[in-house]
Amino acid sequence: MIDESVWHISHLDLTIRMVLAAVLGGFIGLEREWSNHAAGFRTHILVCLGSASIMLLSIYGFSQFVAEPNVRTDPARLAAQVISGIGFLGAGAIIRNGSSISGLTTAASVWVVAAIGLSVGAGFYYAAVLATFIVLVSLFLLNKWEKHLLRHRRNQEVMIKIFDRPGSLGRVATKFGEQGIQIKNLVMQSTSPESFDAAMDATMELRFNLRTVSTDKLLRAIDEILSLPDVIALETNSMPTGKPTSISKGKSASG
């Protein structure tokens, strides 16, 4: 005998689940919004609320067919499609810039928010709240701890545009060496001169992958490199913000 009451939910309970999903997803999205990431406050709310709605639909949306003969209900069928289908949102948050990749944490948070929404939709409240708490601890506290722990082990990327003159590359590399900075990789790309009458207009882009034990030493090296007459501009991801920063000729990196 089938207990049909299991397949029915009151409007109050349904409202509580959907509101709770929006709140929990909003907490995680608020941290992403505060950190200025691609998927922020509203995105996480929509993902969590949508997942909860699909879970509710999967469990209770077809209750009228439960008593029908030869009909088998599977509450996890639609939920399984959410887990596999949410990947397209995560892929949109991942950005590759050269050899560095950003957005992986945001993509993971979107995926976890979908799982939280499914948990709330299924009435698995404790797991949903606990998962939200752990995610917030990971994004807030563990992020700071990871940056502190690995601050000396991350490779730094610096792009320098210089005039293509004899000895210009050596002078730039020397400035890194004077600060004890190890050059892990170097990619050079020549740029055609704007005028064929002035060969000195030829420029070159240098992309350095560096290993340094101190950000302060790297910033001092950048200041000294910017003072070289052959250097036109510099771009780096080694500023305190962690975002790519372009520095024009004559400006101080430490200022």
TrEMBL record:
Membrane topology, as annotated: Multi-pass membrane protein
Record carries keyword Membrane: yes
Source taxon at top rank: Bacteria
Keyword list, A-Z: Cell membrane, Membrane, Transmembrane, Transmembrane helix
SUPFAM superfamilies: ACT-like (SSF55021)
CC annotations in GO: plasma membrane
Main localization category: membrane
Chain ranges of the ACT domain: 157-239
Gene3D superfamilies membership: 3.30.70.260
Subcellular location as annotated: Cell membrane
InterPro entries cross-referenced by the UniProt entry: ACT-like_dom_sf (IPR045865), ACT_dom (IPR002912), MgtC/SapB/SrpB/YhiD_fam (IPR003416), MgtC_SapB_SrpB_YhiD_N (IPR049177)
Family matches, as Pfam families: MgtC (PF02308)
Family per similarity comment: Belongs to the MgtC/SapB family.
Protein known as: MgtC/SapB family protein
UniProt organism field: Paenibacillus oceani
Taxonomic path: Bacteria, Bacillati, Bacillota, Bacilli, Bacillales
